[in-house]
Design goal:
The complex is a heterodimer of chains A (about 800) and B (about 475). Chain A has about 800 residues and is mainly alpha-helical. Helix content of chain A is about 50%, strand content about 5%. The longest helix of chain A has about 40 residues. Chain B is globular. The chains are: A mainly alpha (about 800), B alpha/beta (about 475).
Chain lengths: ~800, ~475
């Protein structure tokens, strides 16, 4: 029944794909000289739009739609005319053919079709397809995919065996392997509800929030430190808030809303949610308004999968986002400032005040005689220098600070560095006796310590003065280069998507812009909000999103092969009241989720990329999962929830960043989510372990972790102290729990690490190896060796 | 992995889903084509220009070396005067500042008669192999922004740009399948000097040391060392069934190769860092065994050994940590020991490469993030000077005994043949056979490059 529709649909997709590929080819090979950002393109030819190509440059039109052989662009790249492009050498034959095809088909330019761009169309409510192979359908999710299998001639892989499935779903939902007991219980439970019971148990486990916080915080740029970021002192409380929000299944719209508006909400805990916004401030005063920049870019990336960030410097090249839209939205966040809240109780605060007063009094007492002692030297040294300066500078410097005119103040400030006198300079003009007195006076000041700060959290508030200020479009985002004024507004331009007739559509507001922006974003008719969210949840369960670019749903994103499924899920998500746990449950109980990761020669020919999910894709464990699992197997993993981040690096590793160190702890057995991450331009803050296993530094929102496989990872698993120590503990545990029976220990080890007993041949190989090993090395532990093998197995490092 | 596929992956993930496997990139190629293409280097971009050098040894002095006290002689005509100048660092106002005297004496060396200060007598004796660029400039006025500008070619860090070495690793891959393409020795000024940025962690620097454990986790724990070879053989057998079952997955093939490479490194790296077979005459050339020069000398000898084995980009950072040891605000005398630490080893490296016939195929680059001002901040030291400073290159197809450009007569601004820091990068790429315009990656649908500003390769210094 749906054949004509589907056919049209696929034709449309093919066109979209072709136009996108064309843009890729042009941007790769031509944009350097002819790109939309080039002010004076070579030969006068700009490739900013289809129109500009038709108009052409000095040599006339570059393309004649439908007629490649009359199109200069084609002739130039095919190199069969006088003009040969690009100048550096020919582009591939494939690319030439693509350009020819595209011009033949009418040279459709993506930007011309924005009104129809799929992501901006209202969410459809597709009917669940009726399929022939109903045995493949556990829930409606499967129906969409089975319909695709039938259409494509694919056969789904068989279901994964129970051990594999348990390992898969446990890593997926809590980021840890199941225990031997959990494996036994599940394998013994032959009731039809056995799997669902496991899913419910895992979704109810508080470690679920820890694992999904990792996904979200990659995206929301969580860091413990980012240069001079003031929020570092209590930023972990934002992470804690996220963990708890996920554990109590805070509806997704509320989850987003709290992080953008928490400072205005009644819930006192929501103050911690806006750690998301406070994280953006670069300094306490946030002179560059990085809170606003960060809010615009992170929120639109994370929640709308829109590359609004591109419009920071220019109108978006492909999506309907103008530079003015960027700065209109930024204007909404411009009044935000960070503010420190003391979390300590009144008693503690009073004690702190006493200690602080004492410190300041003592400091003043010590400084007074020192300054008196230095005064004659200062007058001598400075006087000499001042006399060399122009008269007006001399006058400014000599005028007492409080009496200086603004001009004098500036002069005095400018000259302060060259009039400053440092200790070595003083010492040059002192006698040895004077130096002794000087050092004696300085010593107690150097050891006088300021009382330790009270527990605090940097949140945000709207500043009334800033709210009165005008906002501008900024050239390249530079506050020093304002262009035209913008109001607080947000709308995706006219050709853009079906914006609900809400308050935001092109309207300017003086106050409450943030609330209205959030309201607009969360509006059930906003087609991006739910689509983007369910696509992310899908990606986290299946490895790849239904839309493969989870943070870019714009014109250049890949064509949606599973558009109907995506819309059905989005509808379901909204109707369920944005319950993330309900969505997790729906997805992991689908049959598609439970397929084996096995190959099928017929399917490989039709769909080698597994676009239609006829089998499970394997994935490498994340950095966190690897570390957590190794500690878990050793029995040392500390599952305490929340709290500060930890570091394994010694203090000396952070010269000059004691403040950061003071805010970390050494509880190194905690889950790796709590391992310090962030950026500092002088010193690497990220433990090497996180880096070699592909964890980013939080500079940018990261929607997809790379899964590299490198020799440094192999060396880590073979030789690192973490693995060595954990293998010793894990080995002891295996032997103890098997009453020193090596064969039992092998089975137990395989079950704990891989959720299955060892096969006969594996057991036989290991047994003879370990017995010989023990004989040759009586003082060493066969258990430890066994443990080493287990964590170095491919099967351990991959989930299938 | 095809270039096209790589671009898609990079573009797909909003800056950063670069998928990489082994250093040599051959894991993917092998598994996706089924053909064994282990032989030969394999990167993402084939050199299109004549390949002049196989390896670059990039010596980076952290903190900003004073050009007028080392390689850019000036008379003391302005010393003691207050001169009108724009400041840097904390105070960028235009105002009078006190020029302090240059306390160095300069000597002319070699056939070219290029003058070098008494802080670098050994390097001075090599001037006939060196092309000095006395007209470098940069935009940023503080250490980390300037370091980032120099090594990534971009100001600011918001896009997570990769550094020079990562770009080279990305473009050319590794020539030696036992070693990475990009190695760093010594603590850098900034972690940005090691980052693969959006090219991914596989292109990032692999830190090497000259000590007991040259690469992290390289050494097998003592209790397992006797057994490790057998362990790995059994591990391979234990993996066999899983690997057979997932033989179509690229990741699994890559993992097998990652263990092979790890094992090869365990075998080859200890030999690489073992200097026992180096004759005493070579060691003393680098100043190994002398108190001041031992540490840096060892690093440079290791650099030579890495270059011999085909490592493409060997970065050696001197004086990293904090603002950098060369940051002489207080007193220029603090340059003295740093010059002593580096002078003899650097000349030793150039001589050693030359006597082995390697200097023509190895480019030695000496760089720093900026120079220092002629004036002080009322100390006996100098402030940051991004407007004019000196970098130099030796070997690898550059002219010897050559000076390009100059600063004004007080040593403040580059005035003649100005060269932007990216030009240095463009020159390095050029000598490796890469056109800086080819080195492009599409991030977020936007092509980005290492070199986007400046004038391109400094062709005047090329032989």
């Amino acid at each position: 029944m749906a054949v004509p529709t589907l056919l049209t649909f696929f034709l449309f997709l093919a066109q979209v794909a072709s136009a996108q590929n064309v843009l890729d080819v042009l941007s790769k090979n031509c944009f350097t000289c002819h790109g939309p950002l080039i002010k004076s393109p070579r030969g006068g030819l700009s490739m900013a739009s289809g129109e500009s190509l038709k108009k052409g440059g000095g040599r006339g039109p570059a393309i004649v739609p439908g007629k490649p052989d009359e199109s200069l662009l084609y002739k130039a790249v095919a190199r069969n005319g006088e003009l040969k492009m690009p100048p550096g050498g020919p582009i591939s034959a494939e690319e030439v053919a693509l350009l020819r095809q595209w011009i033949e088909a009418g040279a459709l330019w993506p930007q011309k079709r924005q009104a129809a761009h799929w992501a901006y169309r209202p969410i459809a409510k597709p009917a669940v397809p009726v399929v022939t192979n109903r045995q493949f359908v556990f829930n409606p999710v499967d129906a969409f995919l089975v319909a695709a299998y039938e259409k494509q001639g694919l056969t789904p892989a068989p279901l994964a065996d129970k051990g594999t499935l348990l390992r898969r779903v446990t890593y997926d939902l809590v980021g840890l392997p199941p225990s031997a007991r959990e494996v036994a219980l599940f394998l013994d439970d032959s009731s039809p509800q056995a799997y669902e019971r496991v899913v419910d148990r895992l979704l109810g486990d508080e470690q679920h929030g820890v694992n999904y916080a990792r996904h979200w915080l990659d995206l929301l740029r969580y860091v413990d430190t980012d240069e001079h970021m003031p929020a570092y002192t209590g930023i972990y409380r934002w992470r804690e808030w996220v963990i708890h929000a996920l554990n109590r299944d805070l509806p997704y719209d509320q989850f987003v809303k709290s992080q953008l508006l928490g400072d205005l909400m009644d819930d006192p805990a929501a103050m911690f949610a806006v750690g998301f916004l406070a994280r953006g401030a670069e300094t306490e005063k946030d002179e560059k308004r990085l809170i606003a920049f960060s809010a615009v870019e992170t929120a639109t990336t994370a929640f709308l999968a829109s590359t609004v960030g591109c419009a920071k410097c220019h109108d978006h090249m492909f999506d309907p986002i103008r530079q003015a839209d960027y700065y209109g939205l930024k204007a909404i966040f411009n009044p935000l400032v960070v503010e420190k809240r003391i979390l300590a109780g009144p008693e503690e605060q009073a004690l702190y005040q006493v200690a602080l007063a004492h410190y300041e009094r003592r400091k003043a007492e010590l400084e007074k005689p020192l300054n008196q002692f230095l005064k004659p030297f200062q007058e001598k040294l400075q006087g000499e220098r001042v006399r060399e300066l122009p008269a007006n500078v001399q006058e400014a410097v000599r005028t007492p600070e409080e009496k200086r005119t603004p001009e004098q103040k500036k002069l005095a400030d400018d000259y302060a560095p060259i009039l400053r006198i440092d200790p070595p300079k003083y010492k040059e003009v002192m006698t040895p006796e004077q130096i002794r007195v000087y050092e004696g006076l300085r010593a107690p000041l150097e050891i006088l310590a300021r009382p330790t700060d009270l527990e605090n959290f940097w949140t945000i508030r709207e500043d009334e003065e800033l709210a009165k200020k005008k906002s501008f479009v900024l050239d390249t985002g530079d506050p020093e280069r304002p262009k035209e004024e913008v109001g607080r507004m947000f709308h995706i331009a006219d050709t853009g998507f079906d914006v609900p007739p809400g308050p935001c559509a092109g309207k300017r507001f003086t106050t409450g812009g943030r609330q209205q922006f959030v309201e607009w974003m969360l509006h059930p008719k906003n087609p991006l909000f739910a689509r983007v969210a369910v696509n992310r949840l899908w990606q986290w369960h299946f490895g790849v999103g239904l839309i493969k670019t989870p943070s870019d749903f714009g014109a250049l994103s890949e064509a949606p092969v599973h558009a109907e499924l995506l819309d059905w899920l989005a509808t379901r998500f909204v109707e369920s009241g944005y319950s993330m746990k309900a969505m997790h449950r729906l997805l992991v109980t689908s049959r598609t989720y439970q397929l084996a990761a096995s190959s099928h020669s017929g399917n490989e020919k039709i769909d080698p990329g597994n676009t239609f999910l006829w089998r499970r894709a394997i994935r490498r464990l994340t950095a966190e999962e690897i570390r957590d699992s190794i500690l878990w197997l050793s029995g040392k993993l500390d599952l305490k929830l929340g709290g500060k981040s930890f570091t394994e690096l010694p203090d000396y590793y952070y010269p000059g960043s004691r403040v950061v160190i003071g805010n970390l702890n050494r509880e190194t057995n905690r889950r790796a989510l709590y391992m310090v991450r962030g950026y500092n331009s002088t010193v690497e803050m990220m433990p090497n372990f996180l880096q070699i296993f592909d964890v980013d530094n939080g500079l940018l929102p990261n929607p997809v972790r790379t899964q590299s496989i490198t020799a440094l990872q192999a060396l880590f698993l073979m030789n690192s102290p973490l693995v060595e120590n954990a293998a010793a503990d894990f080995g002891k545990r295996l032997l103890k729990e098997s009453d020193d029976d090596l064969e039992k220990a092998i089975d137990l080890g395989y079950t704990m690490a891989l959720c299955r007993p060892g096969s006969a041949s594996e057991k036989q190989m290991l047994l003879s190896y370990l017995r010989e090993y023990k004989k040759a090395n009586p003082s060493l532990s066969a258990g430890e060796k066994l443990a080493w093998f287990l964590v170095n197995l491919d099967e351990f490092v991959f989930v299938r | 992995m095809t270039r096209r596929y790589f671009f898609e992956r990079v573009g797909a993930g909003f800056l950063g889903a670069a998928i990489g496997y082994l250093w040599t990139h051959d894991g993917l190629i092998t598994s996706s084509t089924g053909a064994d293409k282990e032989e030969g280097p394999l990167g993402q971009i084939a050199p299109r220009l004549p390949v002049k050098v196989n390896s670059v040894i990039f010596l980076f002095m952290c903190g900003g070396v004073s050009h007028i006290d080392t390689f850019d002689p000036k008379d003391n005509g302005h010393a003691g005067k207050m001169i009108d100048a724009v400041g840097f660092g904390d105070n960028q106002a235009k105002m009078l500042r006190p020029v302090i005297p240059i306390l160095r004496t300069y000597t002319r060396y070699g056939k070219s008669g290029i003058a070098v200060s008494d802080w670098f007598p050994h390097v001075g004796s090599c001037v006939d192999d060196i092309a000095f660029v006395r007209s470098m400039y940069t935009e940023e006025v503080n250490h980390f922004p300037a370091v980032i500008e120099m090594v990534t070619g971009h100001r600011g860090r918001q896009f997570n740009h990769p550094c020079l070495g990562s770009w080279i690793s990305y473009a050319l891959g590794a020539a030696n399948k036992n070693l990475p393409a990009f190695v760093n020795i010594g603590r850098p000024s900034s972690p940005v000097q090691l980052t693969g940025g959006y090219l991914g962690t596989t292109e990032a620097a692999t830190p090497f040391g000259t000590g007991e454990v040259p690469v992290e986790n390289l050494r097998t724990p003592p209790s397992a060392s006797a057994q490790r070879e057998k362990d790995l053989a059994l591990l391979h057998q234990l993996n066999a069934e899983f690997r057979e079952h997932h033989r179509t997955e690229m990741e699994i093939a890559a993992r097998l190769k990652s263990y092979e490479l790890a094992a090869r490194m365990q075998l080859s790296v200890p030999d690489l860092v073992d200097f026992a077979k180096e004759p005493e005459s070579i060691k003393s050339l680098y100043g190994i065994g002398e108190k001041d020069t031992d540490a840096f000398g060892r690093q440079l000898l290791l650099a030579r050994r890495l270059a011999e084995r085909g490592v493409r980009f060997i970065q050696i950072c001197h004086g990293g940590g904090g603002n950098g040891a060369w940051d002489a605000h207080e007193d220029m005398k603090s340059h003295g020991p740093l010059c002593r630490q580096t002078d003899k080893p650097i000349s030793g490296l150039i001589r050693d490469l030359k006597q082995r016939g390697l200097l023509s195929s190895t480019l030695v680059v000496w760089a720093t993030e900026f120079g220092r001002t002629p004036w002080s901040q009322n100390t006996t030291g100098r402030d940051h000077n991004p407007r004019g400073f000196t970098c130099w290159m030796a070997g690898g197809g550059v002219k010897g005994g050559f000076v390009l450009g100059s600063t004004d007569d007080v040593g403040f601004s580059a005035v003649e043949d100005r060269a932007y820091v990216s030009d240095l990068n463009a020159t390095i790429l050029h000598q490796m056979g890469l056109d800086h315009k080819d080195l492009t990656v599409v991030v977020n649908n936007r092509p980005v490059r290492l070199v986007e500003h400046g004038y391109g390769p400094i062709t005047k210094i090329l032989a």
